C-alpha cells in the first residue's frame, strides 16, 4: 500500500502527467511523428503558438534531423530562445507562455523548450483620452514590449533602468517599473519596487489594479498616481525624476510620486507658448472650483441667504421658480443625477449611439423638465455649466473624483447653507493635506510651500526659468540644464 502511494505521487509530478493534464484543454496539441528520423514528440497550446514559426522554422528542420539528441536539435534550430530542461515547473510555466515542448520519447522527463509565442497586439494609434492638437500622436497599447519600445526610443540612454515583476497568482502579469538612475530618488525607487514586488492578488488585468493597491490611501476618492496613455508624457516625467509603472495588457502608465496640481496640467501646455498655457491652466482650476461649488451655492443662497441676491436677479429667480413644486435641494439633486445618468449611458453605449444619447437625451430631458415645471431654467443652465466645467480636467480619474465630491457639498449646503459649504471645504482640505503619493506631500507646492515649484504649477513660466527639477521629487541631480551656459551661447545675429 505504501509502495502504491509513492508511485502515484511520483507519477503525479512527472512530465507525462503534466502533458496528460494539458490534453484536457481543447486547444492543446500533442502529436508524434514516427516517420521522422528523430521520431520526436511535440506538444504545445495552439492558441499561444505562432503556427508560421512551427511550419517554417521547426518542423522542416526536425523532419530532416537524423540524430536523437536534444543538444543537436538545440544547436541546429534557427531560433534563439531554446533551452533544454527537466525542471517541471519551468516547463509548465514556459508552455503556458507560448513555448512548445519537444521530447524524444513520450515518457521522457526532459525536453527542449522552443519559444514560438504568437504576438497579437493593437497597432500604435492616436491618444483617445489625452488627445492634443499640437505634439506627438502616439499612445500606449496593450503590449508591454511595444510600450517599452515607445519609451526607449524617446530616452535612448543607458541610465534608463527597467525592473520587471510577475504579479498575479493566476494571470502572471508582467509589470515593469521604469526610472532613470542618478535622477530618480533612491527612496522613491525602493518604495515603488517594494510595493509592486509585495503585491499578492490572483489576477492583474489593468494598471488600475496596481494603482489602487499601491496607493498611500486607498480610501481616498482622489487618485494618487497619474494615469496616462502618452509615451511622450512618460518620457518627460522620467527626465524630471518620477517613477513610471507599465503593465502588460494595459494601454496606460502610472506616474508617481505626483501632486494635486499636476492633474490639471495637460501635456499640450508644453507645446504652446507659456502665456497661453498659463491662461489655460488658470481656466481649468477655475472650472473645477466652479463645478464643485456652483450648485451648492445656489441651494445655500436660495434656502438661507437670499438677501445676498441682487434685486434684479431675484426677480428672475422668483419668476423661474414660481411654479416649481420641489425645494431647491431636490431640484438640484434630480438634475445632477440626471447628468450622471446621461454620462454613464453615453460611456457604456457604442460611440455613435453614446454621443446621440448624450446630446439628444440632454436636450429632450432638460426641455421637458422645464416645461413640466419640475425644474427651473436657471438651475438647468447652472447644472449644465457645472457638468461642462468638470470635463476640463486633463486626467479622467481626477474628473471622476470631482464629480463625486460635489454631492457632499450639496448636502451640507442644504443643511447649513454657506456655513455647511465652509465645513465641507475644511474637511476636504484636511483630507488633501494628509494625502501623500509615495510618501511625498500631495498638496505641494502649496503645502509645504515651495516657491521654486510654483514656476510650473498654477502657471507655466518659460523653459529658461525652469532650470531645476521639482523639489517634491527629491532628485539627487536637481539641475536640468545650466542657464548660465545657455546664456553664453549667443545668437549669430548678436
UniProtKB/TrEMBL annotation:
Top-rank lineage group of the source organism: Bacteria
UniProt KW keywords: Membrane, Transmembrane, Transmembrane helix
Annotated transmembrane regions: 282-304, 354-372, 378-396, 408-433
GO BP annotations, alphabetical order: spore germination
Key word Mitochondrion present: no
Keyword flag Phosphoprotein: no
Protein name: Spore gernimation protein GerA
Pfam families, A to Z: GerA
Protein family (similarity comment): Belongs to the GerABKA family.
InterPro entries, per database record: Spore_Ger (IPR004995), UPF0353/GerABKA_families (IPR050768)
Originating species: Fictibacillus arsenicus
GO cellular component: plasma membrane
